[in-house]
Amino acid sequence: MTFGEVEAIKVADLMLFQQTGEHLTDLETIVLQGSWHKKTYSDIAQEANFNEDYIRGTIGLELWRKLSEAVGERVEKRNFRTALERCWQKLETGALDHQAHVKPSLENVTNSREIARPEIEDFFYHTLAQPGCLIRIKAPWQMGKTTLMNKGLYYREKQRDRIARLSLRLAESSDFASLENFVLWFCLSVTEILGEENKVEQHWQSKLGNNKVKCMTYFEKYLLTAETPLVLALDDLDRIFSYSQIAGEFLGILRTLHEQAKTRPIWQKLRLILVHTEVYDQLQINQSPFNAGTQIKIPDFTPREVYQVAEKNGLSWTEEQVQKLMNLVGGHPYLVQQAFYYLTQRGLTLENLLNHATDESGLYGNHLRRYRQYLQQHSPDGIEVLKTVVSAESPVEFTTLQEKEQAQKFYNLGLFRFENHKVLMRYPLYQDYFQQRSEERRVGVGHAVCMA
């Protein structure tokens, strides 16, 4: 057996899991795949529809750092092949413990320091058991959408359902060139994930009708013939939104596939899960999947849940300590869990964490920069709206339609919250960060700040 791209990704995933208890993310996998094919960060970023600085300086840098710690030697883009091959050789000879689960299973994904949230999870599981269901998991970045999705998939996997989890981040730029290209990629990807024989090209060439009809008939003929239900989860659905020439048509296809279950029994086998942050609003109401099915929102942790996270990390916190952390980050699941990681694994004190939370090199640096870079790339017209809310001492009421639309967009992203139809920053962390970046620009400190 020779060492190739597939083996490299499996080894990287195993080493990270053994070191951290976490698997490769979709973006980390994309960086590894691109690096294996000797693509530049610019090419990888363009194909993944991300900013090059984010791919290079955030995803890539963190990936090589984690791999270096996991394998015990310096790993970089230029030498990761040889480093991972050495690990692979040790695995093959038994010098390293294989642990029998190289590739992430749904069970492994759900086994972490996540606390149980039965009110959300039980409702999700109940809804997912309904024939022909469509479930939309909507929440801002890093709220736990993918974690919840994986828990649902693992639950249905135990019921012997067929599972197809597909992230739109895995599609390349060429797949978005036309609706036909993208629907072909979609059908082929689901086919490969399910391990079915590839009949996509043959079906497209032999059948009449448009892409919507061909997609529907392909599912009927090849993917829905088994007796067991098919749970199809589409993660990172937002990625298609920037491709306006195909977004509306593909989202309309998803709505059509779901509605088939109302009149045709074969389509009751399909259960759709759509995972997204924003909402594509350029569709007619009867064509959009975003007003069909059931929406599940992920709320912030309550003080009790933050206390439970502390216990999961071996800490016995007081009510005052819980409140201090929540006064900074609210109950944002990722921000709370990141805090406890640094408190328990990096030796940070709570006071030190609170005092340096907005530092560019601090524990929330990547999270905060992601917002800043997104605003620079996708919402330059919304900067004034953001500046108004950041600098305000009380909630802001916007009056123009454009301002209200921008405020709603920032609400979906998780930057804003509403209070009696007025707007304020969602967390003090965000308010402090953007205030500091604005002040730095005013006095001429720093460069790539968002208040530009």
A few lines on this structure:
By secondary structure, the chain is α/β, with parallel strands linked by helices. The chain is 54% helix and 8% strand. It has four domains: 5-103, no CATH class; 108-297, 3-Layer(aba) Sandwich (Rossmann fold), CATH 3.40.50; 303-355, no CATH class; 365-442, Arc Repressor Mutant, subunit A (Orthogonal Bundle), CATH 1.10.10.
What would you say this structure looks like, in words?
This protein has 452 residues and is an alpha/beta fold. The chain has four domains: 5-103, no CATH class; 108-297, P-loop containing nucleotide triphosphate hydrolases (Rossmann fold, 3-Layer(aba) Sandwich); 303-355, no CATH class; 365-442, Arc Repressor Mutant, subunit A, CATH 1.10.10. It is 54% helix and 8% strand. The protein has helices at residues 5-20, 26-36, 41-48, 52-71, 80-93, 106-110, 118-128, 145-158, 179-194, 200-206, 211-223, 244-259, 303-312, 319-329, 333-345, 350-355, 365-378, 383-391, 401-413, 428-442; strands at residues 134-138, 162-167, 230-235, 270-276, 294-297, 416-419, 422-425. The protein has a five-stranded parallel sheet, with helices on both faces. The protein has a two-stranded antiparallel ribbon with strand order 6-7. Strand 3 (230-235), helix 12 (244-259) and strand 4 form a beta-alpha-beta unit.
